[in-house]
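Hi there, hope your week has been kind to you so far. Do you reckon you could talk me through the fold, stretch by stretch? I've dropped the whole record in just underneath, so have a look:
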Amino acid sequence: MPSASLMRNFLLLSFLFASLTNFAQENSPYSRYGLGDIFPNQNIGSRAMGGLTTSVQSYQHINFSNPASYGRLSSNISNGAYINFDIGLTMESRTLKQGNPLLSFKTNNLLPAYLAFGVPLSKKKDFGVVVGLKPVTRINYNILNEGRFPASQVSTKDSFQYHYEGNGGLNQAFVGFGKSFGGDVLQTGSSNFKIGANIVYNFGKKETNTFTTIINDSVFHLSSQHSALTSFDGLGLELGATYDFKLKENFVTEKKTKSSVYILSLGATTAFKRKLNASQDDERKTVYLDGSNVIAVVDSVRFTGLSGKVVLPAKYSGGISVSKYAVHSSGGASWQAGIQYETEQWGNDYLFMGAKDKVTNSSLLRVGGELTPSFTSNNYFNLVTYRAGFFTGTDYLDADGNKLKLTGITAGFSFPIVSRRSSYTNQFTRINTAVEWMKRGSVGNNISENYFRFSLSLSLSDIWFIKRKYD
């Protein structure tokens, strides 16, 4: 059974994870549209491989992006099955660039990435369950837009000042189930099929404020403020499937023993269009701003409890990967590499309180892989897993009608925590890192953004269902 210390760590880190969500600060003008910036939907190990998730599985990491992978939690390893606890954090540096002459603005943020806990419910029936919490999108912007009204709008070319503020985002709590059919490919050599589902609870808010000020040298104009707070929540369903089969086996000739196995994995996921229930408070004010920007309300109109829907888009992904696993006692190198395509139908499906927004269908192509030189070497760096990848495509936000190209390069490591006690505690811990360099937008867009993300996760594993030898 899992150790008490592992459960205590889970509860403590869960509290820290929830606390960190209150300290995330950033400023992304593009997050004004849709439901904001999409947060990476992968565990840290997958992020380091360009974001591969659809056909990637691991004994020691929870792949919540494809719930079919939960079926592998119950694989027969050393007469037991793994439970897993994963928590991730992301540090992000973002540089915004605009115009000619070039203007730039930089922000730095510490953000929670995810929290997940996986349990093999039945080793004999190859059935696993995962519960977790993660952010999906983030809204945080503070924009000042100044200029002059064109003559067609007003008789005098008054100056205007728009001040846009917003915060919020979408979060997701989920419980997922995965079932494996057929024996483990490494142990039996037979093909293996897995299916899984995440039952998700999406919840969040979007809070916006718009201040409008007209500036005239001879005539005084009062300012206006439009505030809206929208809360939304609802259930959804995500499905996943994988199919693994043996491509090739290598043998040690003189001993006629198996040395390595090559496996081909196919994977697919989908999430159906989801409708969230929404409630909105809307307030419009005429205000007076003094020299210290202190607001005095002249009059206001407020509408509370307005009901509506937030429609989230359907999304699909498909991928293929090839893996080599060493199975002989000397523990030779193991690796995997894959390619994946994914799309989300924001342009077709998304609605916010019945209204469309400046969004479009998104698509991404991801390529990546990992290498572990050895699982039994005395050289620590041979035990480390090395990862790299890249992705390219278009973002779902389309503020200026020119679409936003999204490109990134990734790399990372998985460091095992080697313990002299591990031989009898059956506990396995890895520290995973991912570095991502990304660019969103190009010269054809009003604003481009450069990202640098460093992500860190702690993966704690223990063996369940292990038979006791002593009481």
The longest helix spans residues 4-20. The CA atoms of residues 201 and 235 lie 5 Å apart. The radius of gyration is 26 Å. The chain has a mean pLDDT of 83.
